[in-house]
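User: Need the bound-state model for hypoxanthine:
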Amino acid sequence: MININAKYRNIIEAIKDEIPFEPEICIILGSGLGDFANKVETIKSISTSSLPSYPLSTVQGHNGNLHFSKYANKKLFIVQGRIHFYEGYKISDCVLPVHLAAKLNCKKILLTNAAGGINPNFAPGDLMLIRSFVALNIKKEITNLIGLSSLELRNSMIDFPSEELNNLIIKAALEEKINLCEGTYWFTKGPSYETPAEIRMIAKYGGDAVGMSTVHEAFYAHYMKLKVAAISCITNFAAGLSPNKLSHQEVMDTAEKVKNKFEKLIKKSIELM
Ligand code: HPA
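Assistant: Bound-state model below.
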């Protein structure tokens, strides 16, 4: 088991000296969705590069900033700049933003990401509420991280993701007249996109969307007793489902097109939380 408290004590101390308030809700912004941070009132921003030993993001569309912001009278901790496993970081590095959220006393976390659509009813630009995760290929790392036996991990999977938050997000989508898909998010380690054959296998086993993040953050947040919800922005047809060659640029372009809808859904969800 890794002692994350000890590993990141410096960072926690550095942030605690600067925070303007104790946040209630943490929002982690996925690839191409970082602009949301500019659509709410920012009270204080901390560049992650100013924090001692904070892992640097190497991915385009992931500026490293921690924002203390307000919207609809709610105090937010917004993380711009996810840390990915495929960048070569350890899982204990990848969950650092979640660890900070827990240490800052956030009670709820909303994870967002870009994902490839597998479900034939999904198209690029759709938003999907994550109903469940497939984390099979990363369970061992997660278990090592939180130091529970697999059995304990299984038994702790109650109300995960949070039914309460999911219902609020569904209500928010209805009020904003946004079509919200629902489905299972299948984690792949990357760094390359999947092969068409892998996607056919994932489809067979019930995966609706595929991506390279979020799963370990969700498990760790749940373990740290935060209520968890997660939303995927379907940025592309998964490999083999369209003649287009998959690229990070396509992911970024779709996220850019969808950002107004995404902003509306997240804002309304925050209002209802
Ligand atoms: N696969 C994996 N990760 C992704 C994809 C995809 O198709 N799109 C965005 N992130």
